[in-house]
Every structure is written in structure tokens, then in C-alpha cells.
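ERR on first pass: missing label on line 2. Operator R.T. fixed the label and resubmitted. Corrected input:
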Amino acid sequence: MAELMGACEAVVASGQYVLGAQGEAFEVAFAAYCGVAHCAGVANGTEALELAVTAAGCGAGDDIVTVANAGGYASAAILHAGATPVYADIDPLSFVMTAEHFLQARTAATKAVIVTHLYGLMADMPAICEAAGRYGITVIEDCAQAHGASRDGRKAGSWGAMGCFSFYPTKNLGALGDAGCVVTRDAPLAARIKSLRQHGWGEKYIVPREVGRNSRMDELQAALLLRMLPYLDRWNEVRRNIARRYREAGITGVRFQQVGREEGYVAHLCVAFSERREEIMAGLQRAQIGAAVHYPVADYAQPGFRKRMGDVAPLPHTEQALGGIFSLPCFPEMTDDDIEQVIRVLQHHGQAL
Ligand SMILES: Cc1ncc(COP(=O)(O)O)c(C=O)c1O
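pass 2 clean. output:
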């Protein structure tokens, strides 16, 4: 806390509040953490996705494959960029996109794929990148729930052409307000994002190439994130341990997101599935335990999105997952007692099933 207050005071005294020295220092540190050369801080995770889609050269007439079970952020970003979302189904046990489903969803107009690493679990990036490469499709990673996650020792955000992060306060690395970033290995892409995040400017006030938007990260958030980044791996370990305790409690009638080998999984949300979800959630609510559904409606069924993209056939695994998933409390501040209480309530319902 003192460290964070000190960081805030330093920003207040600096007189520089948007896109300054703190932002640059955070960009350098976060790029290094992700194992890439570049990072561009932006205002939030949704705009990180939108700017990445635009920087990938996608707009009107282009299809972008993504999943429909990840809260609608990618769909909104794609639609704002003028492109059209096309939905791939998910693996029924791990709830993330597979290469096979990506290829099934691909159309002749597909120019990019947004792969969401959902609930802290990375999708099969070796297979998806290989499949996308075959068709010249740009891979964009949505890492908003996967700070520090990895696969084969390579971090989320370092597999695709660009990796998009949200630093919303509840994320594994969360600011005290809104913030986001795009990481990339590619210098021209980084330069394009840095122009797009500030109105499309090259030199100040000059728009040489394309219209951007105002999506800048402020210095307070950058300074706070810079101080918190060294704790991220430890916090991820705590989250992973909580999720493991739930999984190993042996609860009847409940199955957990299949995460495979645990290293590399960062347990952003501990998501379980049950045919009796409503009953279980009511029990948790009675015990004043916060449980939620991430997310209750598939993107293609959202009335607001459908106005823009028309009717889309429902996807079987996506529909099945949405019918039974629920998220258990899983965050570093939980006490042992908090965790035990959740397990007790789940066991009580398990016995009743
Ligand atoms: C998977 C996913 N993508 C994108 C976002 C968007 O981030 P933000 O809320 O910072 O716009 C979020 C979080 O809110 C998210 O969970």
C-alpha cells in the first residue's frame, strides 16, 4: 500500500499525467515480462483488441474468427473496427478454441483470428498458429484473463502477431482504474498501435495514414502497474493453489475446467460446470459466497450484436457450456477459511445430488 501511495505521489508531483515516463517504463517492463520486444499502453482491453484488429489491416469486408463464450469483448472490438465476427466452437472440457474448430469456422474472407485464453488457460497456440499460418491469417491473442500464463514455456501474448491485455482491477494484474496494452514482436505493428491510440497522429496533430482514436494509458495507472508487476507470478501461484484445492476437494456432480498440466495456467477464474448449477449457485448465495456466470449469453445471441451481424447458427459445445458453467471465488486475498467455506457448501450440495 505504501509503495502504491508513493508511486501516486510521484506522478502527482511530476506534472505529467498521460503517456509519460511511467507509461514508457511500464511498456518496457511488461514487454520483457511477456518475452516480446514491444508494448503499447492503451486505455482498456477492448480498445487494445480494436486497435490490434485495425493494425492487422482488418476492416469492412473482412471476417475475423473468434469464440462466442468470452463476454463479447472481441465481438465488440471487431464490430467497432468495421469487420465481421465469425464464431468457432470451443473444446467442451477446457472451454477454449481449438485449431480444429478454428478451421471449421474459417471463411474465404477470414483475415484474422482472435484467440481468447479464457479463465487463465491458454488455448493450443502451437496448433492454432500453425493452422492460421497455412492460410495467411493473422493471429491476435486476447490475454485479458491470462497475464503470465504460458504454454511450452512461452508466455501468452508472445505467440500471435499481437497480444492484447486488459488491466481492469479484477484481472491477474489489475490497475486501480481502466488500462490495457498491446504487446508484439513486430516494430511496425507497435508503431501503428502507438499512432492509432492517439488519433492516428504521426507527428503531433498530423494524421498521415488513418483515423485513430483516443485510447491512451494514464500515468497513474502505469506507475501502479509497474509497482505491481513484480508480484504477478506470486499472485498467480496463489490463484492456482486455490483452484487446485477446489478441484481436489472431490465434489460430486461438478466438473472443473480441464486445464491439463497446471504450469502455465493462471486461474483468473475458477470455472466449474454442473447440470444443477442454479441449485448450487443458490446455495452459495445463501452462504453469502459470491459466484457468477462468465458468461451467460453467447455473443451470437446478443440482441445488440445480432443487429449488426444477423442470425448465426448456435454452436453446440458453446451452448452446452453456457448452460452449466459457474465461477467460484478465486483471488489472492482469499483466506483459508474463505476457501474452506466454499468447499463445504459445494460438498453439501454434492452429497444432496
Ligand atoms: C476475455 C476478455 N477480453 C477483453 C476484455 C476487455 O477488457 P476491458 O474491460 O479492459 O475493456 C475482458 C475484460 O473485461 C476480458 O475478460
